[in-house]
Design a protein that fits this description.
elongated; 11% strand; six-stranded mixed sheet; alpha/beta; 63% helix
Length: 594
């Protein structure tokens, strides 16, 4: 038995931000370099305030008349340079990060489209959608915060350099005071990480609950489950509120820490300057220059203090995102896989066994052969293995034991694309994609002409109602559209399969949603389409398979019986029992109506 992989790969190791740079951001290095240059210019302008104030106060003390002109102009010039730099760097960085955000989402979506079915089934679509919103949003927020902290760091460093030229001893003392923030900030960051991990899991559960409640709104209202559904999500909302408040409190602690250290630094500056001024070793200009520098660095220092918590949020989100990127698919082309040309449709299951991850065996030692161009039905109670067989043929899953062959080719030895080109599927529940009616039919065959699309629609008895739509074949529809009835949606799905013109048809009770008139038309179309094609049908209504060339009866994942309708009835086994149960009620109703 093969081992089945999980939706998540193990937590990615190493520096996740380094990987983020290498995989996504490195291609934009020129823009990031430009951002850093602009940041450095703005930081230099911010640091210049300290030196400018020192010179201005010196000029005042020297009673220089010219300071009234050059002093204000110098401050205005520094402010304009700083403000312009901030604007340019914010816009340029924002555009670059938006592009990276879109690229991550595009590739993640492609990864999920190609992911093994078993992986995708382990997590609800709503939970996976959380990766595109909350998780990637946190990653982009953290990356943006890092660049913001680089700007803050540049301002602090440039300002300290300027302050060193004013009074190096006092500047080093002030730096030592601010370094005391490292321990509490680090401690708060670790706690924030734990809260964010719990929050992201709760958001995924909330999205699943919202999707479930809204998609099943008809059942909810019919059975008056509004209060029950409301209570279920209410507890989730409360949990998120509690976690949000906890995160807010943790991050809010950083600001007081930085504020207190800033106050300590100012108090220390006042004390030392007063003592040194009394000793005649400093002057008012130096004091004002240092005080201005201290004022410049307080806000950037607070920003850097908040960075650690933001980085931890980004780490949690990247673990969730990269685990999807790192998950290895098992349904892939083997080296040297052959291109499968159009097949005749012969099919063979040899000792096939299959087990879903963490579950009991779904199929065990299944053996049968299907001749090209024949119509074969699969019958059995719920859970007998019918859908599993249909999933194995196009390699939605791979067998755990044995092999599946088409025209003598093991399907694991041919390319997946060429295999699936041989197959058309009509499921019990039709699915429509967002687009026009013509698009939805045309998905069955690339580059299909409008005439071919219309011919397929006519064969599926869909042309009439399509012509009555507001824009005919160009009418826009979507999966959630209420414009079409269940039967109409199914006929579009059948038209899509007819257009595909594949040599193998997989039909999961394709007429189950149709009225009697449409069902007859579809049966006629499918009968014509089935000629010279191998047609496999999952039969729930046994009346639809009376003309099948062969019927395979499954029971507990094994082939229990095989034969045509009359042969199986005469045998008096499972099929005969199912047939009697299904039609006994009909006969009783008919007798009551006579």
């Amino acid at each position: 038995m093969v081992a089945h992989s999980e939706i998540f790969a193990p937590k990615p190791k190493g520096n996740l931000y380094r990987r983020l740079w290498h995989d996504w951001m490195r291609n934009s290095w020129i823009r990031f370099a430009a951002v850093l240059v602009i940041m450095a210019i703005a930081a230099g302008a911010a640091a210049g305030y300290s030196k400018a104030i020192q010179h201005i106060v010196n000029a005042f003390e020297a009673s220089s008349a010219t300071v009234i002109y050059w002093g204000p102009l110098l401050v205005i010039g520094l402010s304009a340079l700083k403000g312009t730099g901030q604007f340019i760097h914010t816009v340029l960085l924002g555009r670059t990060m938006s592009k990276i955000d879109a690229n991550i989402k595009k590739e993640l979506y492609n990864v999920l489209l190609q992911a093994d079915m078993e992986k995708l089934q382990e997590e609800a679509p709503a939970a996976l959608a959380t990766r595109f919103t909350a998780d990637i949003g946190l990653i982009m927020g953290a990356a943006g915060a890092i660049f913001g902290s680089i700007r803050a760091f540049l301002i602090i460093m440039a300002t300290f350099v300027v302050m060193l030229t004013i009074d190096w001893a006092m500047t080093i003392g002030l730096a030592a005071i601010f370094s005391l923030a490292l321990y509490p900030v680090n401690l708060i960051g670790r706690r924030v990480r734990s809260v964010i991990e719990k929050t992201q899991r709760q958001i995924a559960v909330m999205n699943m609950g919202l999707t479930e409640g809204l998609s099943g709104i008809r059942v909810t209202r019919t059975y008056q489950l509004e209060d029950h559904m409301g209570r279920g999500l209410s507890s989730l909302f409360d949990n998120l509120r509690v976690l949000g408040v906890r995160n807010l409190k943790l991050q809010a602690r950083i600001s007081p820490v930085m504020e207190m250290l800033g106050g300590v630094a100012v108090a220390a500056l006042l004390f030392i300057v007063s003592w040194r001024m009394a000793a005649g070793t400093t002057n008012m200009a130096d004091f004002m220059g240092l005080l201005t520098g201290l004022g410049v660095i307080v806000t950037p220092a607070r920003q850097i203090g908040n960075l650690y918590a933001t980085i931890q949020q980004g780490n949690v989100a990247m673990e969730r995102i990269f685990s999807l990127f790192d998950a290895q698919n098992s349904i892939v082309d083997i080296p040297g896989a052959k291109e499968l040309q159009r097949v005749k449709g012969a099919m063979e299951f040899n000792g096939v066994g299959f087990t879903y991850s963490g579950e009991k065996s779904a199929l065990s030692n299944v053996n049968f052969k299907i001749e090209p161009g024949t119509k074969v039905a699969f019958v059995g109670r719920s859970g007998a293995g019918k859908s599993t067989i249909f999933n194995l043929i196009p390699r939605m899953f791979d067998v755990s034991d044995g092999s599946v062959k088409i025209d003598g080719h093991d399907i694991r030895e041919v390319t997946i694309k060429s295999l699936r080109r041989q197959i058309a599927v009509v499921g019990q529940d039709s699915f429509l994609f967002t687009g026009s009616v013509a698009d939805n039919i045309g998905f069955g065959k690339s580059n299909a002409t409008r005439e071919q699309i219309q011919d397929a629609a006519k064969a599926a008895a869909a042309h009439g109602f399509i012509e009555e739509l507001p824009n005919g074949y160009d009418t826009h529809i979507s999966p959630s559209s209420g414009m079409l009835s269940g039967g109409e949606r199914q006929r579009l799905s059948i038209a899509r399969a007819i257009l595909r013109d594949a040599p193998i048809l997989l039909l999961d009770e394709p007429t189950s949603s149709l009225d009697a008139e449409s069902e007859m038309a579809i049966r006629t179309a499918l009968k014509k389409l089935s000629r010279n094609r191998t047609t496999l049908i999952i039969a729930h209504r046994l009346s639809t398979i009376l003309d099948a060339d062969s019927i395979i009866v499954l029971d507990n994942g094994e082939v229990a019986e095989r034969g045509n309708h009359n042969e199986l009835l005469a045998r008096g086994g499972i099929y005969s029992e199912l047939y009697s149960l299904q039609f006994q009620g009909v006969e009783e109703v008919e007798s009551m109506l006579i």
